[in-house]
Design brief:
By secondary structure, the chain is α+β, with helices and mostly antiparallel strands. It is built from 13 helices and 17 strands. The chain has a domain of 123 residues. Strand 3 and strand 4 form a beta hairpin. Helix 7 packs parallel to helix 9. This is Glycosyl hydrolase 94 catalytic domain-containing protein. Keywords: Glycosyltransferase, Transferase. Pfam families: Glyco_hydro_94.
């Protein structure tokens, strides 16, 4: 008995010491975060950029739902909420009768590219709509953007605003119905899309590249379905009667279950890149499951698909991937990249664009999840290269080459939005733990 008491006493002492060490470590990390001037500089630059409006970036004179979704919170803090509301409502001017939503829209004078698949609207005659049909995240991105707008402004009336005779909430239900009828696999109980690099909008076969064509191989991936899970959670929050809440809850539970069941590889502790509805675009001797999808995994974390232990293992994998690739930050999209000889014409080579480029737009979302799940030191240390390059290159670039060279739009608002969210989350944690 005395020995048992002694062991118990030692256990209590070790627990107290462990707690003290953790508390001391948190205080030191808090001090470092709160004294890091680069974080304040990045936040200031992000707010200045977002205050300019809603175009996705200096190279894009368009409003995209998938981009707007990632800088909505900051827009609500820096911009006139009435104008934000108008921009959100305009997406529904271009909604199809089947519920389909577009990527976005552009003023007629800003339509300068060759695109045979444009859309016009009687209720928005001064704009042109557009859509990359290989994606399956337009509907879910807009739903999430509206939820974030409501959370920041408390303007729930937007759900009951009418666009061409239908309320926004009715139109969002139509959007979900489109996905469940036109982009749904009964066999797996999951959403389908064209085969792209993780979250990207370029199909691996080439062809029409951003549009579905005769080369398209339909498949299931974690990004599209994690986005759908998040959208269903928002639809639950929009519903006003018990029956509808029960409906959205059931769908939410089913998609969470099916996504984890069919796409999570328990042995490798990673998500399978694709499940193919019919056949694969790749030869049988190509092991696609050797590829890690960092962006889709980030959204899966946000959707609550992974446990904290699984996330801890994923973080270690991602660190290794970044080191092996030589990528400048945790924003690395996929690793290893898809071999050039297996891809169609006009498709990104290894470490180019979405095939292994470094994107703050998704790396920042990873950092947010690291913080939410308690891996704050990882978020800060792995995020610092992203913060530093904003100052070094004087801009929020769309993506970075493997050697750290900035590429794409220099004022990419998606990058600014996610980094500002990370800075806010780091500072909030530091204030609580100082």
């Amino acid at each position: 008995m005395d020995m048992m008491r002694f062991v118990s006493f030692i256990g209590i002492i070790l627990c107290i010491l462990s707690c003290q060490l953790r508390e001391n470590g948190n205080k030191e990390l808090s001090r470092v975060i709160l004294s890091d001037t680069i974080l304040y500089q990045v936040d200031e630059k992000a707010r200045e950029l977002i205050s300019r409006g809603f175009y996705a970036g200096s190279g894009y004179q368009m409003v995209w739902s998938r981009d707007l979704n990632t800088f909505m919170e900051l827009s609500c803090e820096q911009y006139n909420p009435n104008i934000i509301r108008e921009n959100l409502l305009m997406f529904f001017d271009f909604q199809g009768e089947n519920g389909e939503l577009l990527d976005g829209y552009v003023p007629i004078e800003g339509f300068t590219w060759d695109d045979p698949n444009t859309y016009k609207s009687i209720t928005a005659p001064n704009h042109i709509g557009f859509k990359n049909t290989v994606e399956t995240d337009q509907e879910t991105s807009l739903i999430q953007a509206i939820a974030k707008y409501i959370a920041k402004t408390n303007d729930k009336s937007i759900l009951w605003a009418k666009v061409d005779g239908r309320t926004v909430y009715e139109r969002l239900k139509l959007a979900i119905n489109f996905l469940m009828t036109e982009r749904y696999s009964e066999k797996y109980g999951l959403i389908i899309g064209a085969t792209t690099f993780d979250w990207g909008d370029v199909q691996v076969e080439g062809g029409a590249v951003v549009d579905v064509d005769e080369l398209t191989h339909w498949s299931i991936d974690v990004y599209d379905n994690a986005m759908f899970v998040l959208a269903l959670k928002d639809m639950y929050s929009f519903a006003t009667n018990p029956e509808e809440k029960e409906h959205w809850q059931a769908m939410y539970d089913n998609f969470k279950l099916n996504t984890k069941k069919h796409l999570w590889d328990c042995e490798k502790n990673k998500f399978i890149p694709h499940i193919y509805i019919e056949d694969s675009p790749f030869p049988s001797d190509f092991d696609e499951n050797a590829i890690h999808y960092h962006g889709g995994t980030a959204v899966a974390m946000e959707a609550g698909l992974l446990t904290k232990l699984e996330i801890e293992k994923v973080i270690e994998q991602m660190k290794v991937n970044v080191k092996l690739s030589g990528a400048p930050s945790i924003g690395l999209t996929v690793y290893p990249p898809y071999p050039e000889n297996l891809l169609g014409k006009n498709v990104s080579k290894p470490y180019d664009y979405q095939n292994g480029g470094d994107w703050t737009w998704f790396g920042g979302r990873l950092l947010q999840q690291f913080i939410d799940y308690g891996f704050v030191e990882d978020a800060y240390t792995l995020g610092r290269p992203m913060f530093e390059r904003v100052i070094l290159n004087n801009g929020f670039y769309e993506w970075y080459a493997i050697d750290g060279t900035p590429r794409g739009s220099a004022d990419f608002k998606g990058s600014a939005g996610v980094l500002a969210n990370v800075v806010k989350a780091l500072h909030e944690w530091a204030e609580k733990n100082k």
